[in-house]
């Protein structure tokens, strides 16, 4: 699942690419009976309302909160997209291909057809195989498109009010760890909420802290020399300070590298990030620990149903 650095990369890039553009049309082939009656575009009735609300609206800005991409449009509405496990937003020129003979006309009525395949024209990087699962397309006033590739169809796309975007919708999500005012005392206060929780899963708890998932929690704990099964309440102030230092360093580094593309994440231009080439723990099972002077190796263990990668020597479990 894209974590804070990947979502931040997506939102900041899209903001530069689409800010000020107008949404001329919207297409989707999402349709699930499970979402009947719910405010999700996978519910066809909600999608009709969604489309009516966003048509001909100018994009004011694109920003991030936790793991959500928020597209603020004219008026009092904001498009919320949670990319979930395998989703990523793309920007470029696409051509719809389908069974109907009038597709060449690209009329709005054509985009009401759900039986379409969207073929990327440019940039060339959109032709990556991991970006071919297009289930949502916004046609923009610059003759380009925002396309959403979602291989497993787990994503959430909805419409919320601007007030909800700033408060109510995110009231159960923890603070942003990269905010300047988020210091070690603030982190300690959040950890107190899960005193008996194992630090690996506490860091990933979106109620405790926003935006950290499997990859960055492994890297943060390796850098901090903290065992993933340590109870949150067992951490000293010095250890909490160390964890915070690496939270800020590694999330910032992830953003600088354009995210992590070990799996299928791609940025809006279809390009891979580079953070996967700088792992010290995540998915390095059986390999030597890269810490200078350490003779341990990276092992993998399931912690509260999530995989944890850590060094069996320099990340000790203390009672």
Helix content: 10-25%
Categorize the overall geometry.
globular
Find the CATH superfamily of the largest domain.
MutM-like, N-terminal
Question: What is the CATH topology of the largest domain?
Answer: N-terminal domain of MutM-like DNA repair proteins
- Nearest-integer average pLDDT: 94
User: What would you call the structural class?
Assistant: alpha+beta
CATH architecture of the largest domain: Alpha-Beta Barrel
Our Rg estimate from Cα atoms comes to 21 Å
Strand content: 15-25%
Terminal CA distance: 32 Å
Q: Enumerate the strands of the largest sheet in spatial order, edge to edge or round the barrel.
A: 1-7-8-5-6
How many structural domains? 2
Number of helices: 7
Number of E-state strands: 11
**Spans with pLDDT under 50 lasting ≥5 residues?**
none
Largest sheet: 5 strands, antiparallel
N-to-C SSE string, H for helix and E for strand: HEHEEEEEEEEHHHHHEE
Class of the largest domain, according to the CATH hierarchy?
A: Alpha Beta
